Amino acid sequence: MNLITSGVGLDERRLDELIDAGLDHIQLSFQDSEEAPANEFAGARSHALKLRLAQMIRERRIAFTVNMVVHRRNLDRLEEMIDFAERTGAQRLEIANVQYYGWAFRNRESLLPTRRQLEESIEIVEAARERLKGKLRIDFVLPDYYAKYPKPCMNGWGHQQMLIDPAGRVLPCHAAMVIPGLEFPSARERPLRWIWEDSPAFNRFRDESWMPEPCRSCDRRTRDFGGCRCQAFLLAGDATATDPVCTLAPTHTLVEEILQRVNGSTERTWVYRIDPS
Hints:
Blueprint lengths: L1 E4 L6 H9 L4 E6 L4 H8 L4 H12 L4 E8 L7 H11 L3 E6 L4 H5 L1 H4 L3 H17 L5 E5 L21 E2 L5 E2 L20 H7 L1 H4 L17 H4 L4 H8 L16 H11 L14
Parallel strand pairs: 1-2, 2-3, 3-4, 4-5
Antiparallel strand pairs: 6-7
């Protein structure tokens, strides 16, 4: 059993209860290696709490992954962040560029790294992998917008995973609610088997019948499934479109224009969610 957490609400008693129940791996997310920028990017004073939680995990026999969220404003500190992850005692480090959904989409041009930053970060990661071989496994998630082909989002819509949100709605991915016209059933009202096998939402993009060209005849369609449906909607306004990050997509110029602005502009200010409290 795996747990991906921000650390909020997890104390020693609760952690031990989870381990006794079968938890064998924790992934803990950090927004930076330094407290001030980490709290700024998170919009909350949570960095010190996460450091205490990392110490708790290190004292127990459980697999530990550090997820380091990177973007334009902190990628120049990547070497320090790798050193930080090494000091936590984690066995695995996931360096994940921000994915552009939700409020990250709203702040996209403040978060997308420049091409120079991306090239330098690849060199830093490769050097760290060699230095830490056998001690710390490092995975590096590149920004979609710089990719030649789209990622196989969730390994295909409704192929492998389902998520249940706090309201009980069952989703094929974290961002699926952005797509209009889809009704996601509740786990309180329907059996999970029915939701997985028969619900219209989970079957909407499951096979290849929805695919337009060039996806329909592309030999990559069984590997990337046409890319991310949520990203297609956010960028092209059409969830059935080829993911615009694909260089073969008719709408790829949308991504090229975004990258041109990012690489030719200075940083912008953040736009935060309104705190309801």
